[in-house]
Amino acid sequence: MCCWSVGLVQREIEAAGLSTISLSMIPEVTASAGAPRIAAIEHPFGVTLGRPGDAAGQLAVLRAALHAMEGMAEPGGVVHLPFEWTSSEKLALGPPRHRRWRLHPDDLHR
Amino acid sequence: MNSMILLRADGLNGGTMIMVAKRVDSHRFLDGIAKRAMKRWAVLPRETAAPWTPLARPLSKCTVSLVCSAAIALKTDRPFDPEIERRDPWFSDPSYRVLPRTARTGDIHVCHLHINPVFAEQDLNSVLPVERLDELAEPGEIGAAAPSHYSYMGYTLRPDRLLRESVPAMVRQLREEHVDVVLLVPV
Description:
Order of helices and strands of chain B: EEHEEHEEHHEEHE
Largest interface: A-B, 79 and 85 residues
Distance between the termini of chain B: 23 Å
Oligomer: heterodimer
Shape of chain A: globular
Mean pLDDT of chain A: 84
Mean pLDDT of chain B: 86
């Protein structure tokens, strides 16, 4: 849903006169919302820019997404970013499957 | 298939040159139900054409702001309300929060019910790269990082209030801060 709502928010901001680009793990869904520019990325949900602590990786993704704008000349452009995510890490970064995410956020910090 | 492989037989020495261009697998990190839902979602008829604002100036002159859908709030600010979504799974808290450029990992919490918030709470830059943006601004690769970034709760099937109330308010502040470029980050 985030990949969809980001496209909706993006198109409003773009229509207001700012240039925008979305990162997206599901570019087809972001495009379906009418997003003008998309930088597709194959990263797990919740770590869109990269692993916690991986400053170099995060910087590379940010830089690639922003520079992708420079090559797009018309609405609906999608650039597939080249970053890879190794399979061994896939499960370790999956969504929460325990009761923790049922708690109120204030409880999470106790 | 993750990669699109193009085979060409016109390499400089008459051999085969292989070029590999990444094509993102949109379904790699989805489970079975979500995968089927997203495949159907993606082929629904599109409602409107995408708007277009060309880059007004080179990136090295642009002020850049970030918008993230992870429902990030400063610990000193009002938290996002997950009870709205628990009462009505089709809806979620439609508000947004401003995160100053100086916000750091220890200043925030994440209230998104559909991702593991641990990673963003270990390092805000995993979803809202505030420090990385400053690192691009310092040598002049971008013109400047905007004074403010933004977050909202992205998991919603009824975004009407988000788009009607929160986004126009965000746009007003983006304009006041003379932002040229916005990077949006889903989670």
